Amino acid sequence: MPLDTPFAPLVARILAEATVIDDRIVKIDHFLNHRIDPHLMGAMGAELARRIAPFQPDLLLTAEASGIAPALAVALQSGLPLVYAKKYAPNVEPPEFSRLVPSPTKGGTTRLVIAQRYLPAGARVAMIDDFLANGRTALALAEIVAEAQADLVVAGFLVEKCFQGGRHSLSERNIPVTTLAQIERLEAGRVVMREAE
Questions:
Q1: From which residue to which does the signal peptide run (predicted)?
Q2: What is the mean pLDDT of residues 104-130?
Q3: What residues make up the domain containing 61?
């Protein structure tokens, strides 16, 4: 199965329930990342776990906060440990890896931090997150993995906003990407999904 085969339950929920704002923002936080539908999240976790398994990761990595739910769902299905990059807090045990990430929705920047002991050199890492949009968070995590001398073997996302081009920064690094739902564009107040290839 191709890595971007649409996951029908998620696609159906997006098409039926998404709110589109100014043909720029798609809001599905009422079931995905603010209020979470546990049955759907569990099913998505199982599907992503199945898709990343051929890459033989031994560690999952995500970013606080909205990436934690999907990454935990994948961890429960795969039996792999999960590390998440904290938004900067002074209680992260040094030494640490960190990156500044611009926030497209809130403005400003966020510092993501991981204690070095939790991201060992040589680890085979699968990145998991809720959205792939402009790719800034994904790129920051990829840079942290490289700095740790670990190997980012695959990146998995629930939803990709194709029109924002975030996949490009991962493709340039030869990182395979899998997504469960691909939004081609937002048009006239509605979501247009990418057709299965």
A1: none
A2: 89
A3: 8-191
